[in-house]
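QA checklist item 7 of 12: single-chain prediction sanity check.
[x] sequence parsed
[x] length recorded as 282
[x] structure emitted
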Amino acid sequence: MNTQTNDQLKEQVRQKYSEIALQDKETNQASCCGSGCCSTEVYNIMSDDYTKLEGYMEDADLGLGCGLPTQFAMIQKGDVVIDLGSGAGNDCFVARNETGETGKVIGIDFTEAMISKARANAEKLGLNNVEFRFGDIEKMPVTSQVADVVISNCVLNLVPDKYAVFKDIYRVLKPGGHFSISDVVLVGDLPPQLKNAAEMYAGCVSGAVQKEVYLELIKTTGFKNITVQKEKPIVIPDDILSNYLDEAELSNYRSSQTGIFSITVYADKPAEKTCCSGDCCN
């Protein structure tokens, strides 16, 4: 049984992603989301290809994502966008291309090394409406009802208290605002060795919850129009899994119905009703 507290788990993630901030992209891509359990496979396990998106900056792409939330986020010119777990700024810079000069993008990350890297990248690009704030995405350093859109890429699965994150997303969104979040979820139960391995936790797998639980958390928070915009299976190479499973366990895992998936989820915060006269508020 894993007896680690939420704070201990978060500190493991913080330390691991501080290390990742100092690694090159190739090292991050060749491992399970940058966790250091290097694979001999040459493909990227989790993330999608950003290189064709306007606003893409190679120095900000650490290969840590598991989707393209900005592609589905319906960002408009002038929008205020918040990126949760902004890393080196990759999604923020793509979002800035969508919001234009009249909008604003706020990246939030609890790893100081990532914040430093993102700010340096923003400086290189000369952007004055993209900022990076150090803070916890469960208690964002942002006033309420400020964002039109919230995005995040392969981050919420790393947070032990996901309900707290969705509650704070609800708080910072304007009425009628929405989010588009790419994340990792499970179908079926992972072997205990994978769930309890700290490296896999920081590598976007063991922190994931069941897909049905994830979607129910969103609904419970009060969001509407919940839609899975994209879903794809995540195939972890055997040379990574063999660090945690023996041959028989690996065979059983491959033949089971258990799956790890990347999903991109959309949901709306309901717009506030404005009363006029008669029965318009009923």
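[x] summary fact logged: The chain has eleven helices and seven strands.
[ ] second reviewer sign-off
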